[in-house]
Amino acid sequence: MYDGRIAGPVAPRRPCRTQRERREATRTALLEATIACLVRDGYANTATRGIADRAGVSPGALQHHFTNKTELVSEASRHLMIELSQEMMQKAPPADLPLLVRAEQLFERIWEIHKGPPMQAAMELSIAARTDPELRDSLIAVERDTSAMVAAVGARLYPEVAGHAGFAELAATAFAAMRGLALLGYVHPDVRDRAWPGTLAQLMRLTADLERGNQVRGYIS
């Protein structure tokens, strides 16, 4: 029987996720949990059970997506590099700024990323790969894909010099310098921070040479 009360608005139902969407959500949760565990515990102390717990899934569900720890951490590394590349594109300096201004802003942005947790996870894997042949082999393809992504991002952000001789080498030099300083920072963060301004100045000199179309010594034989 109608009791005279007026019913409130009915909340719209959320569409149910498809099986594919649920699968991708679980996979992403596992990859992000892996990165978090690498940062918190280091590679040696990161276990698949701990990753599953952090992701909120069962160990069986983890094994459904990834057969072993090596496959999981290498895919987590790939996932991390894709996210960082997308972040660099989204936070890129405005295209109407002079090249050197854009380059300096991007170098500073990438350097901040190198000091943060995502790169700590990547460093853990790189160091562990020295004594783990299976992990090393799995990371070779990830490193190759990462280099291709970096080149693609650089070409989109700096099209006026992307075709110059030495462009790819400058990008490789910048990343190598930042990785080295980031690694130093795990022991001496103050030394790392003092070294960065000089490193940035050198990278900017190389960028200026590239803009002028010069072949920087050591780039081209």
Walk me through what this model shows.
- With 221 residues, the chain is mainly alpha-helical.
- It contains nine helices and no strands.
- It is 71% helix and 0% strand.
- The N terminus and C terminus are likely disordered.
- α4 packs antiparallel against α6, α5 runs antiparallel to α9 and α6 crosses α7.
- The N and C termini lie far apart (91 Å).
The N- and C-terminal alpha carbons lie at a distance of: 91 Å
Number of strands: 0
Largest sheet report: none
Average pLDDT, rounded to a whole number, is 87
**Would you tell me the structural class of the helices and strands?**
mainly alpha
Total count of helical runs of at least 4 residues: 9
Order of helices and strands: HHHHHHHHH
How much of the residues is beta strand, in percent? under 5%
> What percent of residues adopt helix (DSSP H or I)?
over 70%
Apparent shape: globular
Q: Low-confidence parts, pLDDT < 50 over ≥5 residues?
A: 1-8, 215-221
Assembly state here?
A: single chain
Could you tell me the radius of gyration in angstroms? Answer: 22 Å
